[in-house]
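yo

u said u wanted the structure for the complex thing, so here. seqs first:
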Amino acid sequence: MTKPAEEQILTDNCRDARSVPLSTIEPGASVRVVDVDASGRVGRRLQEMGLVPGVEIRVVKTAPFGDPFELRLLGYKLAIRRSEAAHVLVMPV
Amino acid sequence: MNAEALTFALAGNPNAGKTTLFNALTGLRQKVANFPGVTVERKTGRWNIGGTTVHLIDLPGLYSLDASSIDEEIARKVLSGEAAGVEEPKVVIAVVDATNLERNLYLVTQILERGTPLVLAVTMVDVFEKQGHLLDFEKLSALLGVRAIPVDVRSGRGLSDLGKAAMDLANGPQGVRPLIAVPEDDANPVFRRYRFISGVVQEAVRHNDNDAHALSEKIDHVLTHRFFGLVILLFILLLIFQTIFSWAALPMDLLDHGFGALADAARAAMPEGILADLVSDGIIAGVGGVLIFLPQILLLFLFISILEDSGYMARAAFLMDKLMSRVGLHGKAFLPLISSFACAIPGIMATRTIEDRRDRFATIMIAPFMSCSARLPVYTLMIAAFFSTQTIAGFISLGAVLMLGMYFLGIAAAIVTAFVFKRTILKAPTPPFIMEMPPYRMPNIRTVLQNMLERSWLFVKRAGTVILAISIILWALAYFPRTQAGGDTGAGAAGASSTEVLAESRQLEHSFAGMLGRAIEPVIQPLGFDWKIGIALIASFAAREVLVSTLSIIYNVGKEANEESETLLSAIRGARHDDGSPAWTPLTAVTLMVFFVLAMQCMSTVAIVRRETNSWRWPLFMVVYMTFLAYAAAFVTYQGGKLLGFG
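structre next:
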């Protein structure tokens, strides 16, 4: 689902070996944001919606056809596609 | 209106309760228009604060001022006084949701950084406090350097305080601006703002473990369930359609009779002649023919408003996004397209929630392929005339199969054209899907009704002139030049006698419309259509169901016949070419149905697309490509059918 290139960009900036793209997280897990790729419109929007370093995210569920998935953060719910989630680097809590 | 009046603006995230607050502050003293040059709605109202009236602008709901969508760009322009025709607001009322404070404050920090005087209106405080959370308003005010006021529309709490605070700010010493502690270092500005907000919230809010949206969470357990979610979505859609078709039938009949009576009354009140004919047959009948769909449109808008206001719309988009993205569309395109099965107009107007322009236009371009209710009379007439008794395998009605086939043909055409457009003229990468799923709430009756009436009125007002113009043109085409017998068709005689019916038919044959029908005959002959059907095709550009009444006139049955009239059915079956061969075969009927699935035979849709895309280019393109596609498909159907030995 995720494009390898996007994952590569993110893992390059990675300072912690445990960091993984948000797109690889399965429903039920809670993670903390490490970094967001802000080079494009998508990353910028995700940041504005509160996906900034330190914020805790719970992956709630996946939509019936496998995408998008539902996140819980800062007391609200956000739906994004896995391809967008690839812009976010997270760490297990 | 007082030219000296102050202008305030209302800003906030979508779903923060902004519209409800705006309604409460301004009552019914509102005006809805578009910002010049774009289709972003500009809502203004008058707000009475202790005897002084101020203009209140309701900015579109937005998450940020960084202009990644057209709404955000407009909002930024209004706040900086750059928007044409809008005065720079003196004070901004920022609406924030207490249960979602951190993300809501993001926009606030951006506005504060611009130096705009601001008052914070905090909504949903009761929900928040009921869960045992505490919000210290004094601390919040002190930390942000602005006044934070809890407001509750239902009880009226805080509304007058909000007005006073805004007034104080507007009349206060200018140049004294609220300060905000966002340090200007080189870190990412978004991260910086959220860090600041996080500090503020930590100081001012005492959270406990209770989830303010526990009920929403439970509802979502079912409504976005991977199996039940889809079943419920299907059920909701069925319910909407069932309701629209059963509830709208009576008012539609009434309107139909009402316009008929009005036309008669107008004719009786005027001296016989062209003017009387123009008013009753051209204007009243033409505009009336479109307006009888108003009950359906109103009901559809009602349901769309309820789905939006309750929070369900976002869930439908969530459930269907994966399927929609396969053809390059957004999950938010799903409900507008489904609505188009009743009528494309509310569907097209509902595409406004799709942020990306190209995505929205692609959705608009394919919406008319959904078989709307105006096509039903056409399908019904054709099936009743030629396929009413046949069955497949002894028990499946051939008519039902054909009907279903027409719906699927429309859907298939929509999928294919969306796929093509998204790769050619509307080429763009699949737009991101980053969508808030707002907590469910009971739809606010007033917001819903107001929404429904506003949108319906916009349709009538904006489409009205185009519909009126086209009605007059189409009427003139059928009215001129006058045949000899034409003079005595008026007089409003009840119960058309056979000579009158004949005269009516002869008039149509020799009119410009008749000439046009003959002129296009060589073009439509490969589709199995003769010039009489050609006239009906031209006339039904007004609205698809006009086909039925035009055929009735042409076949001398009188225009009062409907799609189930036996006289019309037998006239169609018995119609002959000049050489004596039948004018209609079952194959011709199927070809005509195929043509009507794909052709742009609806002036109201053209008018609304003109409005929603803000140019004539798109609606004209729509007419051209849909007509071309309809012709091609009808050609293949007829010629293919003949090769296979049908017809």
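The first helix of chain A runs from residue 4 to 12. Residues 14 and 64 of chain A are 32 Å apart (CA to CA).
cya
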